[in-house]
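Case study: Alpha beta hydrolase.
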Amino acid sequence: MKIFWIFRAAMAAELDVVNLFFVAGATLAIPILAFLASFLLWPSVLIKVYYWYWRRTLGLQVRYADCGGYRFCYSYRGKPGMRPSILMLHGFSAHKDMWLTVVKYLPKHLHIVCVDMPGHEGTTRTTTEDYSIQGQVRRIHQFVGSIHLNRKVFHLVGTSMGGNVAGVYAACYPSEICSMTLICPDGIKHPCETKFDNHLQDLEQSNFTLNIPLIPTTPDEMEDMFRLCSHVRFKIPQQILQGLVDVREPHNAFYEEVFMKIIGEKSRYALQEHLHLITSPLQVIWGKQDQVVDVSGATVIAELVPGCRVDLLDNCGHSVVMEKPCRTAKLILEFIILQQNARSGTKKSS
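Here is what the predicted structure looks like once written out:
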């Protein structure tokens, strides 16, 4: 009888172990199946979850700033401290999360603010808004005031269209800027033509009836845009390409409106027209293989802005933030520290 009870207890223990493995397997299977379903059926949802998870991992919080009925969406990390705050302006048809790759390599104690540009992502979009470079500058100035970022001078960073906006901002509001980094900025008459310039000429000759390369509508066009903007060849699954198309597609009419504004006569060379008004220390970072805005633009800026620091990156295209995030973060931080030390030295000598 004793042997029977021992045997029964052993069998019960084995069943418990089997049940434990079954429950554990089922528990693991649910998120795996959910991931596969999202990847195959709803890749756009997976992309949004990915950005949410990355922001959370990096300690970034999303907030909204209301300005007389106009709402800005932005993410931030840290608080104003010894180092200047950093405001980051993204490029055309992008959003605040494009900076996550760079934020990852910046010290956590820095106060960093990444804002959705006017009409983009979570920031208000209206049919009466002025999306020219000057119009965007006015809105960003409104945002800066609403979160009191200009209580102290701050470092301004902008890439592509955001670089055009950042440069004009620094020219219009010089007292708010302590230093600035422009990454492959638009708005310059670069001496050498690029692949995108050729596309733009074809678009103008067709009276803009052809598809705009920066506004893809299919996975193949999305892949072509990545090839145009990036020198590094990223292997992106077809499902993710489709997800990116799905995320952008509802906004394509808006992107076309903004595109027509920023290539218009009023905005196309706005940065170059304002370079002579820039007084803050300037850093320019550019990918040597940029096929959208030619790297020769860096020479144009350096000739017109005395003391401009130029950092050219090998094996890098227009998407510097995506292709060389660690190097970009290091260069920005070095420049900020250098300029802060220079200001401290000037104060001590006086």
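For the exam, be able to explain this: The first strand starts at residue 61 and ends at 67.
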